[in-house]
Amino acid sequence: MKIVQLANLYSPVSGGLRTAVNMLGQGYAAAGHERTLVIPGRAYTRSVTAAGTVVTVPGPSVAPGYRIVLDPGPVLRVLSRVRPDVIEVSDKATLTVTARWARRHGARAVLLSHERLDAILSPRVPGWVPLDAMADRWNRRLAGMFDAIVTPSRFAAAEFARVGARSVHRVPLGVDLATFRPMDRERDDTVRLVHLGRLSKEKNPWLALHTARELRARGLDVRLDVIGDGPERRRLHRAATALGLPVTFHGHVPGRIQVARLLAAADVALATCPVEAFGLAVLEAMACGTPVVAADTGAAGELLAPRAGIVAPACPAGFADGVQALLRVPEPVRRAAARARAERYPWERAVTRMLEVLAGP
């Protein structure tokens, strides 16, 4: 097949979306398919890599490190040159017009839904806005445009079930089990916590800070590593300093092996986002042998298993209880359980399932 992947907000700092698009695309190329990736950039560029062709089209910056295609014209011209059999769209906004192009030219169009629309909009619109009705109208439109919709979790699929969408497929994503693996780590009386994710309001990173504070109030010697960047970083750093909390803000860590080392060094990872559509960071932590406390809403809890992790109310006391519950499990047992759970999600399985959806009935 000729497969074109289209993605907005794809950048070196875009975390889960970038990882998913890259790993799936590499899998498509390894399986013998012709893969082209189209993403926003400063200007038009084209390069050939071992995993296929990468094309950037002009897109303005909408946040530090993030760009979005506002004019779909250059994307449509790329599609006309490549003439794909199928397009995979990782966007619910400006790139969705490509589904019409696909229909006119006999190609299959598949939407890869990385986030729930209501979850994206909730922190950005006033409370009086009828958010569910707005999201439902847009999702009905999407369901009518695309031949298939792929969601990574039951939680993510719920917004499409709510509008009666057909041809919705649940394809859990994967984890790089070679890069993210258990490693030698220091062992002392310090409880090492880690939070990996974008430091933005909807991800609720403040919960990690307040969980560390709660555990210290309970008498535990706690240290917190925060991996990632975002608009809340400065405020979080100021708060941690004011509270005297031992928190290290690593910012965006570009090397995956460096991220893996930080995850493997922790006793427990904190997945604070209450509207997570999947939870790649959860899988990466568990692959490193680090169990996870996850918010009891969203999709992260779908990835957990006994002794590998626990869901908890998204409040400091709830997360602190979860951390202490995991610490009561003998370390070799909880670390082995976390790794075993992650091993159920190899990228090869996700690629195989996605190729089935892309090929169609």
3D structure, described in words:
- This protein has 13 helices and 16 strands.
- Helix content is 38%, strand content 21%.
- The chain is an alpha/beta fold and 361 residues long.
- The chain has two domains: 2-174 and 346-359, Rossmann fold, CATH 3.40.50; 191-342, Rossmann fold (3-Layer(aba) Sandwich), CATH 3.40.50.
- The chain has helices at 16-30, 73-82, 98-104, 117-121, 131-145, 154-161, 206-217, 233-243, 256-265, 280-287, 316-327, 331-342, 347-359, and strands at residues 2-7, 34-41, 45-49, 52-58, 61-63, 66-67, 86-90, 108-112, 148-151, 168-170, 191-196, 222-227, 247-251, 268-271, 292-295, 309-312.
- Keywords: Glycosyltransferase, Transferase.
- GO terms for molecular function: glycosyltransferase activity.
